Write the structure tokens for this entry.
Amino acid sequence: MELYDAIMTTRSMRRLTNDPPVTDVEIEHCLRAAVQAPNGGNVQPWQFVVLTDPDQRQRVAEVLQRATTRYMDAIEAMRPPSDNAASERSWERGARLTRHLADHLAATPMVLFVLTPYPNILTDDEGPIEIGRLEASIFPAVQNFLLAARDIGLGTTLTTLVKVYEDEIKAICGIKAHHDVVALVPVGRPVGNFGTPPRRPAETVTSWNTYGERRPFADPTT
Ligand SMILES: Cc1cc2nc3c(=O)[nH]c(=O)nc-3n(C[C@H](O)[C@H](O)[C@H](O)COP(=O)(O)O)c2cc1C
């Protein structure tokens, strides 16, 4: 498919099946795209673990369910005051889907872990050197994976709740203690349809020359 269409219709797909089964060849196709991502100094600070084993996936799912319960209780306390029914529905939908993913992870065809063996802080004799967060060199690779998956019709979601009980995840997957788990991406055949997810229009978050100077974008259909 066209690249722009793939970008515009890549959304979080959490209802995933294995019919027909997701193949290793498809995952390898997406991983090849992942490692082509830009990254600071071309250090390529990523490692990937593809989880296909049902027993391991079940154990990971149990950890993620606990993490999700804890997260959702905590985030509920931060729920913004409801100003309209649409934002209320959007909040409820997000919560429901996050819960759904955790509750169905064990049945997800494949689960990808993205990790880094590198420390987040670069130091020398003078101390820490501020070079921005290491994840900035990893999330572009994750996004490449998501887009390559979209291109071949696979559904994915970028998730990070795996961080909550990261040490338990590492133990299940034999990930070294000093490695940092950055994200978990479930992969499968989507049950729902791909489509353009709701976002604030680009023109409402773009300034020209001076912050706050907005101008309407040209009509893309003309
Ligand atoms: C850094 C990051 C962390 C996320 N973590 C989770 C997560 O742990 N669980 C989950 O279900 N979705 C997670 N998401 C997915 C977001 O909820 C999703 O991108 C957002 O709601 C927009 O969804 P949409 O693209 O379907 O509109 C995460 C997304 C990002 C970028």
Q: What stands out?
A: The chain has six helices and seven strands. Residues 3-196 form a domain with the NADH Oxidase fold (CATH 3.40.109.10). Strands lie at 16-17, 47-51, 110-116, 122-124, 127-129, 155-156, 180-190. The chain has a mean pLDDT of 93.
